[in-house]
């Protein structure tokens, strides 16, 4: 095996990712080739020293400074961000949207899904408890129209 | 009654959903599940499909995206040392490193909604940090007009006197770290970023390719060359005990 083919093998050997066969060929080449053995030695030693670099700690109050400097001016997108208050429902709503998106419910392209069609014979299992999908969704104080709109209009190709 | 179902994993909006389809009728969806949650057709029992979490930061990221500052603060605490440390090894200046880390978190916060989970949150964070560090390097380059330090200069200044010996006390640790960072400073930016991400930060080659936007082959070549070039400069550090990471 020519020396110039050894570079990727050296890198993989350091990661422990050589196949048994590759490892054999690798070892055999190193036995016969001083230059490559030296190069591999360098790779291993330098990697070892670098990996031992002690961490640079953040100074006291770093987190506080970051949080204090987060811009709070509202993104205009925030105003449309219904997810901010439907967060706890997001997994349930998302799962239901998945149902629609996977195309299992019969729909005509032009016809919007009836929300009740989507949820009435589905149940949600969470923490061992089973409840009808509708009642779980309605437990939260969520504006019905907004959640409905989100569920009906969410498109997996361009999610929320 | 258990109805046989075949499962498909669908990754969407950062979560791996498992969709279970009736094995005998592919048009019948039986259940959709995600970690900790299952939505199933009433009256049909389905064998549990274990939800698979793809990103350990997923919960916090979702909460932060939904507006929870506590969640974002938890992410900051989780990653602050890594980012400050990473920036310090790229920039060598600790003060600048903190500025870069802080700016990284702020940028991440502002573009959280645009994080789609195509990569781990950690990878995304390192991408922002790398770009921020590069900008800082460019700014510094314009200000100082620092030419490439010759390898010989650095090798000399890293001579035996300045290298600590003995056990890993605080001073030794700081000196060893500074020696490493000075050695890294002799590399070009591209080589330094690649080798630090691999050997110091422990990212794998695919992650580094994503973070740097370079093809994997280029990443491998940079790492190989960086280590070869660092050999002489780091020679005095062989066998030095450093503090814990």
Uncertain segments of chain A are 73-89, 105-120, 134-148, 153-160
Low-confidence stretches of chain B: 43-53, 146-161
Task: Give the structural class of chain B.
Answer: alpha+beta
Largest sheet of chain A: 2 strands, antiparallel
Q: How large is the share of residues in beta strands of chain B? A: 5-15%
List how many beta strands of chain A DSSP finds: 2
Describe the structure.
The complex is a heterodimer of chains A (160) and B (245). Chain A has 10 helices and 2 strands. Chain A has 160 residues and is mainly α. Chain A has a two-stranded antiparallel ribbon. The C terminus of chain A is likely disordered. Chain B is α+β, with helices and mostly antiparallel strands. Chain B is 55% helix and 11% strand. Chain B has 9 helices and 4 strands, in the order ββββααααααααα. In chain B, a hairpin with a 2-residue loop joins β3 and β4. The N and C termini of chain B lie far apart (54 Å). Chains A and B meet through α1, α3, α4, α7 and β1 of A and β2, β3, β4, α1 and α2 of B. β1 of chain A pairs antiparallel with β4 of chain B.
Please write out the topology.
The complex is a heterodimer of chains A (160) and B (245).
Chain A lengths: L5 H10 L4 H13 L1 H18 L10 H8 L6 H4 L3 H4 L3 H12 L13 H5 L2 E5 L2 E4 H7 L4 H10 L7
Antiparallel strand pairs in A: 1-2
Chain B lengths: L4 E8 L2 E8 L6 E6 L2 E5 L16 H8 L3 H23 L2 H17 L10 H24 L6 H7 L12 H16 L3 H12 L4 H8 L3 H19 L11
Antiparallel strand pairs in B: 1-2, 2-3, 3-4
Helix pairs in contact in B: 1-2, 2-3, 2-4, 2-6, 3-4, 4-8, 7-9, 8-9
Give the structure's gist in a few sentences.
With 160 residues, chain A is mostly helical. Chain A has helices at 6-15, 20-32, 34-51, 62-69, 76-79, 83-86, 90-101, 115-119, 133-139, 144-153, and strands at 122-126, 129-132.
């Amino acid at each position: 095996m020519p020396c110039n083919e050894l570079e990727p093998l050296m890198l993989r050997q350091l990661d422990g990712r050589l196949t048994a066969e590759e490892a054999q060929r690798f070892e055999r080449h190193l036995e016969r080739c001083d230059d490559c053995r030296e190069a591999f030695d360098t790779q291993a030693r330098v990697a070892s020293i670098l990996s031992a670099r002690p961490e640079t700690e953040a100074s006291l109050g770093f987190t506080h400074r970051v949080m204090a400097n987060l811009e709070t001016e509202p993104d205009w997108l925030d105003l449309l961000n219904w997810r901010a208050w439907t967060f706890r429902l997001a997994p349930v709503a998302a799962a239901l949207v998945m149902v629609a998106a996977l195309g299992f419910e019969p729909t005509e392209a032009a016809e919007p899904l009836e929300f009740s069609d989507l949820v009435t014979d589905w149940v949600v299992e969470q923490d061992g408890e089973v409840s009808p999908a509708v009642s779980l969704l309605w437990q939260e104080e969520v504006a019905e129209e907004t959640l409905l709109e989100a569920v009906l209009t969410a498109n997996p190709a361009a999610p929320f | 009654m258990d109805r046989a179902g075949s499962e498909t994993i669908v990754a969407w909006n950062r979560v791996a959903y498992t969709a279970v389809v009736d094995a005998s009728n592919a048009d019948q969806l039986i259940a959709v599940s995600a970690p900790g949650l299952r939505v199933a057709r009433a009256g049909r029992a389905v064998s549990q499909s274990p939800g698979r979490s793809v990103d350990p930061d997923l919960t916090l990221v979702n909460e932060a995206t939904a507006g929870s500052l506590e969640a974002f603060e938890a992410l900051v605490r989780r990653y602050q040392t890594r980012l400050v440390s990473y920036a310090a090894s790229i920039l060598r200046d600790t003060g600048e490193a903190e500025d870069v880390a802080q700016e990284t978190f702020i940028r991440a916060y502002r573009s959280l909604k645009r994080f789609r989970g195509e990569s781990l949150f950690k990878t995304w964070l390192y991408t922002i940090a790398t770009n921020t560090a590069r900008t800082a390097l460019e700014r510094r380059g314009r200000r100082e007009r620092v030419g490439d330090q010759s390898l010989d200069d650095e090798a000399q200044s890293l001579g035996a006197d300045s290298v600590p010996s003995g056990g890993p006390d605080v001073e030794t640790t700081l000196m060893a770290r500074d020696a490493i960072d000075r050695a890294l400073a002799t590399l070009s930016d591209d080589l330094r970023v690649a080798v630090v991400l691999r050997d110091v930060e422990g990212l794998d080659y695919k992650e580094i390719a994503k973070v740097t936007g370079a093809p994997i082959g280029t990443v491998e070549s940079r790492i190989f060359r960086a280590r070869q070039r660092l050999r002489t400069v780091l020679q005095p550090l062989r066998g030095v005990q450093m503090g814990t990471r």
